[in-house]
Design goal:
Number of strands: 0
Number of helices: 29
Strand content: under 5%
Length: 609
């Protein structure tokens, strides 16, 4: 994301991350980087603004929805009728529910959740312009709807369900085909039109669906179709519960039991959904809005059901808050319709009562959303909150330990890793624990821990990498080389393994082999300062000074405070006769580190000449 060039743009349009095709999301990050670098504020601001815009679009869509036909022609004179003013404010209230519901905190607070807020933005614009075109057939609006849909798919492939929502809107409004105001046609022709006018949308869904499956093959294959089906009942009811009663949210929702229909965790949700289905069917006598809302929910949440094993070999998750970001709109519409009907039924639908109830709901949701946002304040607060709800989450313990490790709180990290291992013995957790022992200089403990990791997974690349670093530190370069090569065999794109293998080659005098490994690392990630720096050192040793200067320049561009790169570049510039360029590098070093002796001495030598 660090630059916007034809090469980088081409790359984001031709890659998965690692399983999602989200090029437009990457482009939004590229723009953020141009504005604010890697400072978090810019990324959070962009996501927050998109969520705010999404709430406005939800309100717009809901106003169009509630002010539309809404009731089949045969029921237009029925008992369930609303004034246009009432329908307008119901739509606004729907937007407020979307804006403030704490279930949406993850999609907004998590920077990687950008794909959800961005895709939803274009998803809603597609619905709005489709409804506008359907009621007023202006070709520009139809083309805009198709364009917005393509952008939604480029942000996140989960938008593929949108064409089915368009058909659902037609059913809700009792529309059998043809645009509003068009000359009536024979029924078969009108029904045919209802599908043919959406061919472009279905074609885009098919194309992007195939692309999406290409990145999800591992996830799809990780569980059976039957397991996905019965887990879908549990997951969908869980989302409904969180929307209706917004409490007990978590970053992770692990499930450690057997996935079987004989468990009440799965047959009870199916029974509850059966009762809800009967009630929704009965509601069709009054309005189609409730049925539309629940159908919208199921259609849009459906693609997420393949992800319940997304934790891979570390854990199994049955839900994620962000998966309900778009689907919640359908439930909001259904709940608003039910609430409006109840108020009318008990004759408590005065303007004052409506405003009072709406205000209480909005204030409560806003307070809960604020509370949930505070959970995301630090890594520790976020993962500790998981342990409150799911104390058996070894993943939470593991990730807390990694946070302590990065902060240098090594004893705290060891304690958390041991808690994780007490719950589940896993190769990656052992590898992480071994890294802490290695950092503490406890070589014997580190080697023993890495061996335990490799006993569980002989191809565990993290353990191979860690043990290789131990061997390297012990100057046992043959064993280090073997472990790094084994790790690369496991994962050809293992960046750090290539870089460290290059370091082994440099140390053992195989400079050409080292250069090859560094170049491979930079193909994998062109913005990896360590690989660029090591490449510069190797090129200098080979006497390829011009290429070395370019490598050190790349390092400084990526990490301006990388002092060794500036020192090496300054020396090369000086030896090449560019004293001004060398002076600039050493002066820059003193701005970073005023007490740097090497830079001070170099400037004295340059000034004395």
């Amino acid at each position: 994301i660090r630059d916007i060039t034809p090469k980088s743009v081409a790359r984001i349009f031709s890659m998965y991350d690692p399983e999602l095709y989200i090029p437009l999301t990457f482009l939004s990050y590229q723009i953020d980087y141009q504005i604010g670098g890697i400072a978090p504020f810019q990324y959070h601001l962009t996501s927050f603004l998109f969520h705010t815009l999404n709430a406005l679009l939800v309100a717009w869509f809901a106003v169009l929805f509630f002010m539309g036909a809404g009731i089949p022609a045969c029921q237009q004179a029925g008992k369930y009728a609303r004034s246009q003013d009432s329908e307008f404010w119901l739509g606004i209230f729907c937007g407020l529910l979307f804006l403030l519901h704490p279930l949406h905190t993850e999609a907004v607070m998590w920077v990687s959740g950008r794909k959800d807020v961005l895709s939803t933005f274009f998803f809603l614009l597609t619905l709005i312009y489709w409804m506008r075109w359907r009621n007023h057939p202006i070709r520009r609006w139809y083309l805009m709807a198709i364009g917005f849909f393509a952008l939604a798919l480029l942000s996140k492939v989960m938008a593929i369900t949108l064409p089915v929502i368009l058909l659902l809107l037609d059913w809700r409004d009792g529309r059998s085909g043809g645009r509003s105001g068009a000359t009536p046609l024979q029924a078969p022709t009108r029904i045919r039109d209802m599908f043919t006018e959406k061919i472009s949308f279905f074609a885009l869904s098919l194309i992007f669906g195939l692309i999406g499956i290409g990145g999800k093959t591992g996830v799809v294959a990780s569980s059976s179709t039957w397991e996905k089906m019965i887990m879908a009942g549990k997951s969908s009811l869980f989302y409904l519960q969180k929307i209706v009663w917004p409490d007990f949210f978590s970053l992770l929702y692990p499930y450690h039991k057997e996935v079987t229909i004989m468990s009440p965790d799965f047959y009870v949700p199916i029974l509850i959904w059966s009762v809800i289905a009967v009630l929704v069917f009965l509601s069709l006598k009054k309005t189609r809005d409730i049925a539309f809302g629940f159908a919208f929910f199921f259609i849009t949440v459906g693609p997420t059901f393949i992800n319940f094993t997304k934790g891979g070999d570390l854990d199994v998750y049955f839900a994620s808050d962000r998966y309900a970001y778009i689907p919640s709109i359908g439930i909001f519409i259904a709940l608003i319709t039910v609430g409006d009907w109840i108020l009318r039924k008990i004759r408590a639908d005065s303007k004052q009562i409506r405003i009072g109830l709406a205000s209480v709901i909005v204030v409560v949701l806003g307070f809960l959303a604020y509370q949930q946002s505070q959970v995301w304040k630090t890594t520790y607060s976020l993962l500790s909150h998981v342990l409150i709800e799911y104390p058996e989450s070894h993943v939470a313990h593991n990730n807390i330990a990694n946070a302590w490790r990065l902060e240098g709180k090594l004893d705290d990290a060891i304690a958390e890793f041991q808690k994780a291992l007490a719950i589940k013995k896993h190769s990656k957790i052992y590898a992480n624990l071994g890294a802490v022992y290695r950092k503490q200089g406890k070589i014997d403990e580190a080697l023993k821990t890495y061996q335990e990791a490799l006993a569980l997974d002989p191809d565990g690349k993290e353990a191979l990498m860690g043990r290789g670093l131990v061997w390297f530190g012990q100057k046992d370069f043959a064993k280090a080389e073997a472990d790094f090569q084994h790790a690369i065999t496991t994962d050809q794109r293992y960046l750090e393994a290539h870089t460290n293998l290059g370091a082994v080659y440099m140390t053992t005098g195989r400079t050409d082999d080292a250069i090859r490994e560094y170049r491979i690392a930079l193909v994998i990630n062109p913005f990896y300062p360590d690989a660029s720096y090591n490449l510069g050192v190797a090129l200098t040793q080979k006497g390829l000074n011009d290429e070395a200067m370019q490598a050190f320049t790349d390092v400084i561009g990526e990490a301006p405070t990388f002092i060794p790169a500036r020192i090496n570049l300054g020396l090369l510039l000086y030896n090449a006769g560019d004293h001004d360029g060398a002076r600039a590098q050493f002066e820059a070093i003193l701005k970073i580190d005023p007490n740097n002796a090497s830079a001070t001495k170099a400037l004295e030598q340059i000034g004395a000449q």
